[in-house]
Write a structure and sequence with these properties.
Shape: elongated
Order of helices and strands: HEHEEEEHEEE
Helix content: 25-40%
Length: 145
């Protein structure tokens, strides 16, 4: 009888440990999204093109505006509101400054139009992928060596 009780207690402890670990991983995943990400893959743009433009999205949390973020696709500063929850993403209020940069506008225009459609996100290692099922944007963490 004591053996059964011991097995029961150990099983309960194992279940609690697994549950806590799973919760910790979800929390770490959310923390990982709040950083600066460099664009590395997007539609027909080459990695060389997006790297030359220093295309990035900055999802760093700010206390004064917790759901407002920025991006730069080579010319103008861009801004938007975003929410992330368990693999789902919602982008809205996309805008930018209005400078003209010869030869650098194509990526920015396409990104600004498609970002509000991105509704899923996935973090794998140092990579962030945004997708709407048709188009995909892939980023690498800027602080990753």
């Amino acid at each position: 009888m004591k053996i059964l009780q011991a097995i029961g207690v150990l099983s309960l402890l194992m279940l609690l440990l697994i549950s806590c670990n799973s919760s910790k991983k979800m929390s770490e995943s959310m923390e990982n999204i709040n950083r600066k990400w460099m664009l590395v893959e997007y539609n027909d743009f080459t990695k060389a093109e997006v790297t030359k433009l220093e295309a990035n999205i900055d999802l760093t949390k700010r206390a004064e505006a917790p759901n407002q973020y920025g991006a730069k696709m080579g010319c103008n500063g861009m801004f938007f509101t975003a929410e992330f929850n368990k693999g789902e993403a919602k982008f809205s209020g996309v805008g930018s400054t209005m400078m003209f940069c010869d030869g650098k506008m194509k990526l920015e225009e396409k990104f600004g139009k498609e970002l509000p459609n991105m509704n899923r996100y996935k973090i794998e290692g140092h990579f962030l992928t945004l997708t709407d099922g048709k188009s995909t944007m892939k980023f690498v963490a800027a602080d990753w060596d």
